[in-house]
Amino acid sequence: MRSAHTVEQVRAAEAELMARMPEGALMQRAAAGLAYAVVEFLGRSYGARVLLLVGAGNNGGDALYAGAMLAGRGAGVEAVLLAPEHAHAGGLAALRAAGGRVVPGPRSTPDVVVDGIVGIGGQGGLRPEAAALVAGLGDVPVVAVDTPSGVDVDTGRIEGPHVQAAVTVTFGTHKVAHLVDPAARACGAVHLVDLGLDLPPAAVTALQAGDVTAMLPVPEPTAHKYTRGVVGVRAGSQTYPGAAVLCVAGAATGLVGMVRYVGGADDLVHATHPEVVVGAGQVQAWVVGSGGGEGAAAALREALADGVPLVLDADALAALDAPLPVPALLTPHAGELARMLDVDRTEVEADQLGHARKAADRFGCVVLLKGRHTLVAHPDGRVRATTVGPPWLATAGAGDVLAGLCGSLLAAGLDPFDAGSVGSWLHGAAAAAASAGGPLQAGDVAAALPRVCRALLA
Ligand SMILES: NC(=O)C1=CN([C@@H]2O[C@H](COP(=O)(O)OP(=O)(O)OC[C@H]3O[C@@H](n4cnc5c(N)ncnc54)[C@H](O)[C@@H]3O)[C@@H](O)[C@H]2O)[C@@H](O)CC1
Ligand SMILES: [K+]
């Protein structure tokens, strides 16, 4: 599990550890990890030209000490101080002692920029002077210290000019901004340097392959199809019969014992998935809404009558007007979530974490907000982010496959929070496998799912 903590949690854990350690020891650990990451990024240190952007706080201190270490290994290190009177005194002395220099501004194009403008103490976007300096450096790759300066660390929002990093080196634990978009996009690859902090439960987590394997429903030796669970799909319509096929494809990957289908695309479903039972009957979970058109509201009423857990997708989300009486997973994209909360889509995209949490609270169920980093928010406040999945996954029908897959996990016995986060991880991993760096279609994602499960279980 990857864990991301809030600034308040990090500060408390750091204070507790610092009280037990010699002064400055934590910063030395952080700076050593940072210097190592810069060398790894450049592939060398001797002769490399490194420019440090140094702000007023300890984030700048990390940059200065790392710069001193790089200068000690033969790099040419220069530092621009954005708040000269507040720059970290010890770090500045160390840099100078190692042969580094303070300069008023970049004098030539460096090989790498180290962004030590602000870290977890930052408020708002970059100030104008810093923004101009960063813009002037153009395409020079940036290694960000702790967080890319200018992003909101606890929410993942971006409210002004910010640094776009190639690599972000963070300390002690991940921060929310490393997992939640749009800030996560500004981080590039994230490296964690362990500081030995003692941390409380995380604000946001991200499942890793081992976590998903442990939660994957695996048949008992004595299993039969009904003990493994039956998932029902109420999706598709005369207008959107393909959505039924794709939703069924996501459900029929072998993770449950049986799939039922009810909707307007019987013949097509039967032709493409002969193993699927067409017609109503007992199920452990229903998936409702993908391509359901105007029939989605009636499909939702019928599914609710069975009293089993639900996945609500697409048109069924529009039919939702009150908290549901059964455990449920809602799977909106940003536009659908915006309609559910009566806000603009741009607002949802700018504050994905805030809106996913708000919807989970308002509707009293788990909300899976689809995106580059999909978020799964529980009404109790827990959030999981899915960071696997290539951009090729942004393709028509991929959401139908996801809804079917999550439904099969619900029917197999996972709760909506686990079904949403495991389903979204498998979906992203299957897309990566199907894509292999190239384009894909939604059906390819469903087809790759058994392969992904097999690799996890191997
Ligand atoms: N506390 C610790 O023991 C450790 C802290 N570390 C580093 O310390 C950082 C936190 O240090 P600080 O608490 O000093 O905070 P920061 O260095 O992140 O920033 C605080 C300073 O930046 C100014 N500032 C805030 N927003 C700004 C903006 N938008 N533009 C320009 N200036 C702005 C503030 O006025 C303040 O002077 C971490 O991110 C990490 O890099 C690491 O050395 C590990 C150990
Ligand atoms: K930074």
From TrEMBL:
Ranges for domain YjeF N-terminal: 10-203
Cofactor: Mg(2+); K(+)
Alphabetized Pfam families for the sequence: Carb_kinase (PF01256), YjeF_N (PF03853)
Cofactor: binding comment: Binds 1 potassium ion per subunit.
Function comment: Bifunctional enzyme that catalyzes the epimerization of the S- and R-forms of NAD(P)HX and the dehydration of the S-form of NAD(P)HX at the expense of ADP, which is converted to AMP. This allows the repair of both epimers of NAD(P)HX, a damaged form of NAD(P)H that is a result of enzymatic or heat-dependent hydration. Catalyzes the epimerization of the S- and R-forms of NAD(P)HX, a damaged form of NAD(P)H that is a result of enzymatic or heat-dependent hydration. This is a prerequisite for the S-specific NAD(P)H-hydrate dehydratase to allow the repair of both epimers of NAD(P)HX.
Family per record: In the C-terminal section; belongs to the NnrD/CARKD family. Belongs to the NnrE/AIBP family.
Protein name according to UniProt: Bifunctional NAD(P)H-hydrate repair enzyme
Organism placement in taxonomy: Bacteria, Bacillati, Actinomycetota, Actinomycetes, Propionibacteriales
Gene: nnrD
